[in-house]
From TrEMBL:
Its EC number is 2.3.2.27. CDD domains: Arf_Arl (cd00878), Bbox2_TRIM23_C-IX_rpt1 (cd19773), Bbox2_TRIM23_C-IX_rpt2 (cd19774). Pfam families: Arf. This is ADP-ribosylation factor-like protein 6. One of its GO terms (molecular function) is GTP binding. GTP binds at residues 388-395, 435.
Length: 512
């Protein structure tokens, strides 16, 4: 019990003992550290004591003929005007000391960072790690060696910088080894060679086109950066294409093949007893087609991945070259140009690839012929309606497409004429509908499942242009033709190339 009481008494004595602080940068009233600016800025009283701005605001001024504050330490008065504490002078000596402390702390943090990142040994003591570089002595120094060596009045004026800010070494001229190589030859057909000002004026490159090493190196860096940006875009484009191919492969493996099989089975289900052999043949055809597509897509994906990895390796090499010294960069400039030219050719080759390679489709087009044979992406049926005013030449155009030359003027069409024409992988079903006034309300019955509309205008009869325009505006606003292609054909012009009518028509049909 007695021991416990003694322990408690010692504890209370220690807690009640006043704490004496020796930090001169603290306010002795609030015991908080002074700051360079703000409410904790140090201000001087007339008696010489320093108090922070915040504590002075809490002191109540004595009200007499002239307001004054009493020092909290020796009760000496300090006059103030209009109760304004800001008129008191700041302790500039203390503020300068605070700034020096902040600067020293920042320098210590910089040197600590240099110490962690540096692997350079001190030139004075190899057991130490250098964190500073003297630009006058050209030596690597640690903190302790710097303080012992540069203590004299002359050496203290030397400029020391952190090791990370060390200026890069300039190469020496291969001919005049005592001179710095400041120039390089940029003449076409001449290898990049370093030279000093003597070689520049009197050497074999005196008549060549010369440039500063720093300027030429910066130009090469800019070209490499531009090439890196292009290659990055190139790799992103290849990555997107490879991703699309991967999506198509997954769709083909997951649902597209099975969907094609199901459609084939659905078509042949109604005629199962009679068409069993044809169904098996169709399934085999689809299997062959899909296997070929999968193999081609996988090969394309593998080629893209290989090319992309090669471009990535070149990018890494180029980035490493960027960090090298100027003279080393100039020596490897020719090799860099050759690599960049090769990559640019690959990029141009990639840009020239067709949409079938860049944006492949996962669906499998299937067409069934009348004899129940399956055609995969070979023939596409298109329904085309030929409209226009009466006498515009619709029947003549249809006859020209069939390769028939009319001996006389055609008879006005009553109702419609229908013809089927085949061009490459397209099968056109052409409906020539009469254009007389009484037949125009019947045009809407031909719009169903129409993929294209050819509107023929008589270019020689300008008086009926407004009537043709009104009829065309009605056709364009039809809901059933919102997805149809439109071709406006100006007929009866001075020059008509009859043998190219069908070709021009087919090309225009797909470009509209």
């Amino acid at each position: 019990m007695t021991d416990n009481l003694n322990h408690l008494s010692k504890y209370f004595k220690q807690t009640l003992k006043p704490i004496v602080r020796t930090n001169v940068l603290e306010c002795r009233v609030c015991e908080e550290v002074f700051t360079i600016d703000g409410i904790k800025v140090p201000r001087l009283l007339h008696c010489g004591h320093t108090v922070c701005h915040s504590c002075l605001l809490r002191l109540r001024p004595c009200m007499t003929d002239q307001q004054f504050l009493l020092c909290p330490f020796d009760r000496q008065p300090t006059g103030i005007s209009q109760n304004n504490i800001c008129n008191l002078k700041k302790n500039f000596a203390l503020i300068e000391l605070l700034e020096r402390l902040e600067q020293s702390n920042s320098e210590k943090s910089i040197l600590e960072t240099e110490r962690l990142q540096s692997n350079q040994t001190c030139d004075e003591d190899e057991a130490h790690t250098a964190v500073l570089y003297c630009t006058i002595c050209m030596t690597h120094l640690c903190e302790s060696c710097d303080s012992t060596i540069h203590f004299s009045k002359t050496l203290s004026k030397h400029k020391r910088v952190p090791l990370s800010e060390k200026p890069k070494e300039k190469p020496k001229c291969p001919v005049h080894t005592t001179h710095v190589a400041e120039f390089t030859c940029t003449q076409e057909g001449c290898h990049n060679s370093l030279m000093c000002y003597l070689c520049k004026d009197y050497g074999r490159h005196s008549t060549h086109k010369l440039a500063l090493v720093e300027v030429e190196a910066e130009n090469i860096r800019k070209s490499i950066v531009t090439a890196l940006q292009k290659m990055t875009q190139f790799m992103e484009s290849m990555r997107d294409t490879a991703h699309r191919i991967e999506t198509v492969i997954q769709e083909l493996e997951v649902w597209a093949i099975e969907d094609a099989r199901q459609r084939v089975r659905q078509h042949f289900e109604e005629l199962r007893t009679l068409l069993a052999e044809q169904e098996n043949a169709a399934i085999s055809c689809i299997e062959t087609e899909t296997r070929g597509r999968l193999c081609a897509l996988r090969q394309q994906q593998q080629d893209l991945t290989t090319t992309r990895s090669q471009v990535a390796d070149v990018c890494i090499q180029c980035e490493s070259i960027l960090d090298s010294e100027d003279w080393k960069l100039l020596n490897s400039a020719t090799k860099v140009k050759e690599v960049l030219t090769t990559l640019e050719q690959q990029q141009q080759h990639y840009a020239q690839l067709g949409p079938d390679f860049l944006t492949p489709e996962s669906s499998i087009p299937i067409i069934f012929s009348r004899d129940n044979r399956v055609h995969i992406g070979t023939k596409i049926d298109m329904r085309v309606v030929i409209l226009g005013l009466d006498g515009a030449g619709k029947t003549s155009i249809l006859s020209a497409m069939r390769g028939i030359t009319l001996s006389g003027p055609p008879i006005p069409t009553i109702g419609f004429n229908v013809e089927s024409l085949e061009y490459k992988n397209l099968v056109f079903t052409l409906w020539d509908v009469g254009g007389q006034q009484k037949f125009r309300p019947l045009w809407k019955h031909y719009y169903h499942n129409t993929q294209a509309v050819i509107f023929v205008v008589d270019a020689s009869d300008r008086s009926r242009f407004e009537e043709a325009q009104n009829e065309l505006s009605k056709i364009v606003n039809e809901r059933e033709l919102k997805d149809a292609l439109f071709l406006i054909y100006a007929n009866k012009q001075v020059i008509i190339l009859q043998n190219t009518i069908f070709t021009i028509y087919s090309q225009t049909l797909f470009y509209l």
